[in-house]
Amino acid sequence: xxxxxxxxxxxxxxxLICAPSLIFDHARFxxxxxxxxxxxxxxGDIRTAVVALLRKRQKDGRAQIAKAFAEHxxxxxxxxxxxxxxxxxxxxxxxxxxQNVLHPKPNPTASxxxxxxxxxxxxxxxxxxxxxVDLLFLTPYKITAWAESVIESMLYILWDLKLKVGHAxxxxxxxxxxxxxxxxxxxxxxxxxxxAGDAALADNLAHQLRKDLFSGxxxxxxxxxxxxxxxxxxxxxxxxxxxxNVKEGKGGLRDxxxxxxxxxxxxxxxxxxxxxxxxxxTEDEFRGFVAAEDFLWAVRGHLHLINNRASEQLTFxxxxxxxxxMGYEDTKGRRAVEIFMQEFFLHATEVGDLTRIFLTKLxxxxxxxxxxxxxxxxxxxxxxxxxxxxxxxxxxQDDQAFLSDKLNLLRLFEEALRTGMLIHPxxxxxxxxxxxxxxxxxxxxxxxxxxxxxxxxxxxxxxRALRRMNELGVLSAxxxxxxxxxxMMQFNMYxxxxxxxxxxxxxxxxxxxxRGELEEDLPVASSILKRGVDRKVLYTxxxxxxxxxxxxxxxxxxxxxMARKIAPRLGLNQADTDTVExxxxxxxxxxxxxxxxxxxxxxxxxxFAKAVQTVKRLDLLxxxxxxxxxxxxxxxWNNWKAVLIRALYRQTKRxxxxxxxxxxxxxxxxxxKRALRDALSDWPRRELQKETARHYDPYWQALHVTAHxxxxxxxxxxxDDEILIDLHPDEDRDATRACFVMADHPGIFARLAxxxxxxxxxxVDARSYTTKDGMVxxxxxxxxxxxxxxxxxxxxxxxxxxxxxxxxxxxxxxALKSRDKVKKRERAFKVPTHITFDNEGSEIxxxxxxxxxxxxxxLYDLARTLAAANVYIANAxxxxxxxxxxxxxxxxxxxxxxxxxxxxxRSLEKKLRQAIDEGVERAKE
Length: 925
Hints:
eight-stranded antiparallel β-sheet, Hydrophobic Seed Protein, single chain, 4 domains, Four Helix Bundle (Hemerythrin (Met), subunit A), four-stranded mixed β-sheet, alpha+beta, disordered N terminus
């Protein structure tokens, strides 16, 4: 029997991404097959020859599809059909060889019939480059030895082609029984498509499935698919996770497929376009469905081709490569990958909207009715006129009456907050299609302003209203400047959310503080809000603090300029507008001062106090800063940052209330010495005098009395040439405090940094002090790889490793080479290096700030470079933002002077950049 063209004609060949003959020329293959096996006699030789032929055609076909897809990177449908077309030919060719060459049966009995059916995504005719090939081998009765042989031979051919084949051999009766028991099997058979063999047998299966399995079971199928969807979202994350799963994540392809499966099961549709005729989707909504599906399939196709395997996760490195493959380009202020990911998240949001509309329609017809007793006894809030309750959701009673007053587009959200109910998708649809009503006249309407601020300030859960308003486009319509940041991704490892979601998370945190839910975690911010602040100013500043992200200008400066227009439009007076503008302009100031500067240095607090000027502004900025940091991601806020922010706030508040002169070193030093004497009251007076006299002023102002006590005891006990180490968990700061005492010698700071890097410790703060009698007292605060203090059980081994390194048994520079590697998924991040010198921020020291890419051993490399240049490091402050780190060094030259000369600054900068570049090269090796 020859391999005819009719047998291998896959559906929809007209819509392929390139000519069918370039993918698989079946006529030529039939001729080549006949020639290749003409003189072969053993099954093994025949199979080897067939696999060689098919492998060549598979390779050539895939190359042609990939080439065409690269030239038309958004043509997803033709691409998926092309891979289906190629796979169909491979499967049918394998069946032909197995059935007609290896195991011919000229006169088959009634039981010796076989139908090969594609199921699942392959059955639907949608395949990514490395999708699974799911096959159902259907037999009329119990499988025969002949059918077993055919299936086995066919599968060996397909496996030799490195296809990932999922397969099952069943009768129609078994299909019905297993489908009734397992919804995954039932869903796969819902997408069945006949490939080859006994067509009548396949037709019979399709008829029996519809009649005996699918019919009348729509409700249970819907409930099973919704439960499956919920489980999948929990596992793979929400819509705005920074490394989304294109297939399984929220708003991904599986959501669209689930939607179509339910539609096909319930409405017997074969195409999503049929849902428009059924009234499920409008024409616009269906266009959104198609656009989202095409985009997501294109992304998935490129992901597979770049990885050369099935891959569904858009990791950071993949985001860059997929964006490049799809032709996105950098613009001023934004990278191509950020533009690509913004489009991805916008499509994911569209998928969520469509799913919500579709499921609500289904719910009305198919989900179980609410028990009558529950309906009677559950108390519902009374609806305001114009609204109705539809299956526990707020609906609009009369569309025309609703739209006759455009303020209703805001009132609906207030009613939802007041009642605590969800908005019905039909009402959402009504709003989304009438956003043009929100015009300049409405934006400046006093009642519209009142409604908007009531949503923020009145009901206690503004994030719920803002998120729904954002998804429906109302927020961008009312505050047009908000639109560019909707779904805007920030391409770094620090921010867990898109810009708009970050803002909503910030406001969520503010509302939680106001509700008293975070009093234990945030005592300072909670007390500020209890005392009272201008809530309208604070909420407005949070809402627009990042509104200028994604532009080439500094987003704080540009955002402040935009605030001058937005705040008056929202109804704020001039004084409040000025405060909002100031908060937006300086919304990073407190965070930067606390995390990048030594807040124990009086000059730091003095400069910050001069910038803030009033306690009112300090209160507002403190709360905004806390909400901003907490809104970055679920694990961004920690005790270390809390301690720094609280300390800066309290010192600044005291300075603003009692005068800046309270910040001088002498006052602080006297208080610290008094605290030490109280803590060591059992010490002889002479020993106490010796201890308080041996340190310079900076030592007293920078450390807590607990550290002073520890160092006093270590200095009393230390012997010549001895190194003493004290490791103490500092739970208040989420870090372990490591104190070192030894004789002073050049480069000790770098050696300690190297020792800590070798044990895998992340240094978050470091302070180095030399006593008047030539001893070093260094304090480091360190965390483990997860950003936590070391468990007490790990401290002995940690101490042992540090001692070993300090004794010179391990050379840190050599040992760290193997640890400098940057993970593959993180290599896509571009972090330019900036090095600045500041001689005004401290009275005693030059402040060198190194802003660059983080990696293991970076602090050691920088400290070693400075030591080699005879730079004395007094202390280092380390602030980490994902893949970016800012290492700030307080330094003096070998004569105890600042680095004023520009030539010396440039020389040091050159050496530091060289150390960073060498580390980058090691990381690539």
